[in-house]
Write a structure and sequence with these properties.
Main location: cytoplasm
InterPro entries: CdaR_GGDEF, CheY-like_superfamily, Homeodomain-like_sf, HptR, HTH_AraC, HTH_AraC-typ_CS, Sig_transdc_resp-reg_receiver, Tscrpt_reg_AraC-type_HTH
Subcellular location: Cytoplasm
Oligomer: single chain
Distance between the termini: 76 Å
Helix content: 55-70%
Radius of gyration: 38 Å
Protein name: Response regulator transcription factor
Number of helices: 23
Pfam families: GGDEF_2, HTH_18, Response_reg
Number of strands: 10
Largest sheet: 5 strands, parallel
Strand content: 5-15%
Shape: elongated
């Protein structure tokens, strides 16, 4: 950006000589106008506010020093002044210093001297502009954050909008950009986005807001969208394409609802946040625009219990091909049932935590899993659904291999599987002999090993599991006592009541009334 310089001298040839002598553009300036007397110059300065005034001292009507004095006293504008004069009187120079004149140059003008002075003035202006811009950006970003995240009264919201310098604009959209699979400095993301929207225009600014690792939000104004034919969707596609090209990785863009008034920006922000929940439902190669999604809503549900149980069994049995099938089915279910992003995270983390718990129960050290750390932090680093699935499968296969080694090293491996079987089949008619046959073990040896491993007899453990489940149902349901007994594996309600009282010190009815 070139700064504006105004030439004032009553000698036309001096003015033309200055215009032709100096490399104005190379020094960061362009001559915006010229005048041959101080009175006209003062009027121009007050009206057009040039950045720099180069003036002679001796001029008709109003001399150079009076011009400077009046400009300073009126306080309507504050340009820099350079005096070029044929008079070397110290008194002139002294008065010039008093009025804050940047430099006092004697005629005849030396090209190198004045160009050096101009570069210093331009450098001073550039630093001041950058400082002011930084201050304005800090104020704007603070106001922007308050507008989005705090419940403000209407007058305070209007104050925030004024600090954004966008109150005259009509039409806004909040966009969240997510860089998948690789870690990227958000400063680089900002630079790419700003260049895409504004080109090389240094005075243009975009309001950004950080959304955590590899996610950044920005406010897009209608006049920024208009040059990209096709509206907000096409605009988002262009931004996505530029980011993908520069960063060489997958990018997901979420677009909030377009609002007309800046005071309603929060609505667009909140709908962009909601659009994030469609990440694993919609095709990631296109921007996800809230309200235009194929699935108009997402579901906050959990993975089917039978599917979850089957996966855990296959992991413990190290059935690699079955684990692969289970993971494929699991991720297909995420999309078919339109799992919200948070629901996907919950389902995956549930499996990860259960696997870790199983390893710990077999005295295994989960820290030896090379894939554990990435799975514990997988949602902190945005990834595509395919990348998450591959990461998850690698973790499960490594964990299954470790469990298999622990089973071979530990004679209690089968006993742990038996305990797991009891935990999920306690409703059935389970006996020591039946279980021993199912797991191809000697009943007596199995009973001894179970007692050694868990500190109680097999029969005692079954009773404990059934009574705990009965207590849960008595707390959470209105089932009759005989129904509770039947649901937890007791064919005889009286026997159930006897065992319940023996274990807890009260009858089922007393237990329920105590709650």
């Amino acid at each position: 950006m070139a700064f504006k310089v105004f030439l004032v001298d009553d000698d036309r040839y001096v003015r033309k000589g200055l215009m032709n002598l100096i490399d104005w553009e190379g020094c960061g300036f362009e001559v915006c106008a010229e005048a041959d007397n101080g009175e006209d110059a003062l009027e121009y300065i007050q009206k057009f506010h040039p950045d720099l005034v180069i003036t002679d001292i001796k001029m008709p009507v109003l001399d150079g020093l009076e011009l400077i004095k009046h400009t300073v006293e009126l306080k309507k504008t504050n340009p820099n002044f350079i005096i070029i004069s044929g008079y070397s009187d110290f008194n002139y120079a002294q008065r010039a210093v008093k009025y804050g004149v940047h430099d006092f140059i004697l005629k005849p003008v030396d090209k190198e001297e004045i160009e050096e002075t101009l570069r210093k003035v331009a450098d001073k202006y550039t630093k001041e502009l950058q400082l002011n811009r930084n201050r304005e950006n800090i104020v704007a970003e603070t106001a922007f954050n308050d507008l989005l995240t705090i419940e403000l009264e209407e007058d305070l919201r209007h104050d925030c909008v004024k600090k954004l310098n966008i109150d005259q604009t009509i039409g806004f959209a909040y966009i969240i950009i997510e860089i998948n699979n690789v870690a990227v400095n958000t400063i680089k993301i900002r630079e790419i986005i700003s260049t895409t929207i504004h080109g090389e225009a240094v005075n243009s600014t975009t309001l950004f807001r950080e959304h955590g690792s590899n996610r950044i939000g920005l406010l897009v104004k209608n006049e920024e969208i208009q040059p990209f034919s096709g509206g907000i969707f096409h605009f988002s596609e262009i931004v996505k394409a530029q980011l993908t090209m520069h960063l060489q990785t997958d990018v997901t863009i979420y677009v909030g609802r377009i609002v007309d008034d800046a005071i309603d920006i929060k609505e667009s922000y909140e709908t962009a946040i909601k659009a994030l929940q469609f990440k694993y439902v919609e095709a990631s190669e296109k921007p996800i625009v809230y309200g235009n999604t194929k699935n108009r809503s997402v579901n906050y549900i959990e993975l089917d219990q039978a599917q979850y149980q089957s996966l855990m069994e296959h992991i413990e049995e190290n059935l690699i091909s079955e684990i692969r099938k289970d993971v494929v089915m699991m991720f297909e279910q995420f999309q078919e049932k339109a799992f919200a992003k948070d629901a996907v995270r919950t389902s995956i983390n549930r499996v990860v935590h259960e696997v870790v718990k199983t390893l710990q129960s077999m005295d295994g050290d989960e820290k030896n899993l090379t894939t554990l750390q990435s799975m514990l932090n997988w949602d902190n680093q945005p990834s595509t659904l395919v990348e998450v699935k591959n990461m998850f499968l690698d973790f499960l296969l490594e964990a299954a291999g470790m469990l298999n080694r622990l089973n071979k090293e530990c004679g209690s491996g089968n006993i742990r599987r038996i305990k797991k079987y009891v935990d999920t089949h306690y409703k059935n008619d389970i006996t020591l002999k039946h279980i021993a046959n199912t797991f191809y073990m000697n009943p007596v040896y199995m009973g001894q090993l179970f007692k050694k491993t868990y500190g109680m007899y097999f029969k005692e453990y079954i009773l404990q599991v059934r009574i705990n489940e009965a207590k849960k149902q008595l707390r959470q349901t209105d089932l009759r006592i005989y129904q509770v007994a039947e649901s937890v594996g007791f064919s005889n309600p009286d026997y159930f009541v006897t065992q319940f009282e023996k274990t807890t010190g009260m009858t089922p009815t007393q237990y329920r009334k105590k709650l």
